[in-house]
Amino acid sequence: MKNLYLEQVLKQRLIPQPKEISFQDGECLIQDGISVELKTAENEEEFGETVAELFSEYWYVSPEIKLSHSKTAEDFLEDQYEVQVTRKKITLISHCSKGLQLAMKTLRQLAEPIRGTAFLEGFVLQTCKIQDYADSEFRAVRLDIKPYNDLGDVEKKIRIVGALKFNYIFLDCSEVFPFKSHPAFAFKDHVKRPAFFRALLDVADDVGITLIPCFNIFHQASFCEYDIEEHKVLNFHPEYAPLFEPGGWSWCMSNPESQAVVADLVHELYEFFECPDYFHIGKISSQEFRFCRSCAEKSAEDLLSGQIAALYLSFDENRPRFVLGKEPSDPDKKVKIAFPGDILLELNEGEKIPEGVDCVQYFQNENSVLADDAGGTVFDLNDELLPISAADIAWNGKGQDNYSTDAFVQVKLNAVADMEPVSHHDF
Ligand SMILES: [Zn+2]
After folding, report:
1. CB burial class (10 A; 0-12, 13-18, 19+) of residue 172?
2. What whole-number distance in Å separates Cα of residue 187 and Cα of residue 361?
3. Model confidence over 225-256: pLDDT tens digits?
4. Shortest CA distance to 266 belongs to which of 192, 188, 320?
5. How far, in Å, from the CA of 293 to the mean position of ligand 1?
6. Residue ranges of the chain that CATH labels 3.20.20
7. pLDDT tens digit string along 155-203?
8. Which residues, in sequence order, are bridge partners of residue 29?
9. Domain spanning 4-133: which CATH class is it, in words?
10. Distance in Å, CA 217 to ligand 1 centroid
11. How many other CB atoms are found less than 10 A from the CB of residue 420?
12. Domain 139-414 indexed as CATH 3.20.20
């Protein structure tokens, strides 16, 4: 390409940055009947429908799609794609529909409205060739749902995260989930209706994201923030007091009745969210322990292992992988807190994690790392603005600081354009 500045401008639009990209001189108008070839390993009819729907959703046109089998794509990873844009044709190469969806997300970031008119006449792409794949199969953010979040807020966040090519969200929603198995745990002033969560499942599916529910099986049993003088269960149902440690913050881990309630609530969440591969069982922190007289007779290690084992045994062989959150060991803290939990945390360093736990989420500054076969980084989405480089760390393993804020704003706008929250869900 002759104009190096234009090349730089176009590259900066792409978040995360593709592995290889080359621009040529020339443009491709995205118009009705544009020729689009899909070369995949699986070559299924429905891929054509998926891509046609995305052309209509992104650029309001209907393409002429041709499907063919690609021998090369048989060796592609699921999160790998190639794009070729020439003046007259767009070619997408991938193993299956995941790669096609990723390729379309890239083209959506690259496309811009035709210039020189007051009203939209269509979109245009620079001719180019892109080869790209994800370094990690697990690219996650953590998202809390609070009582004051409405569906539109949460939908927007999921759509933006999807546009940035993340593929998992750890969804912390137990405070607002309408539990049916134990209605005392569905808080009438805070609870969202089931349709709210069904809508989130649809949105997540639409943008290529799997929702992983979280439920802390150790602490946060008040379903409130730490130090808020409120207990969502005991304030209305003091009869449940034996399920909790004195003070109410932790579950009573030596009480089998408490473990049975925890298992019911976990199963309900897991099944509602369509039995994903993972389930987050919460974060252990020695600071958060409380003891009743019965728990005080056991070691912290026995209590935690027993709590995990009880949940483990409540599942059949189709159970999800349990993810356990773990704060980094803090040497200063150990001196200050005379509590056997710190010994346990030390024991759990590296490979020595309690039986039944499949992955550990290690917290490092604002990010955390999920240690399992796939590995991956989990970013916190509680802040309104996800750091621009987060998508690149997730996709390419390292941050990229060449983006302008405009690039991120553009991705956000694209992601939420034409969003119609709630409208197609019957409340
Ligand atoms: Zn207890």
Report:
1. buried
2. 29
3. 766 677 888 889 999 999 999 988 889 999 99
4. 320
5. 7
6. 139-414
7. 999 999 999 999 999 999 999 999 999 999 988 778 999 999 999 999 9
8. 124
9. alpha beta
10. 13
11. 9
12. yes
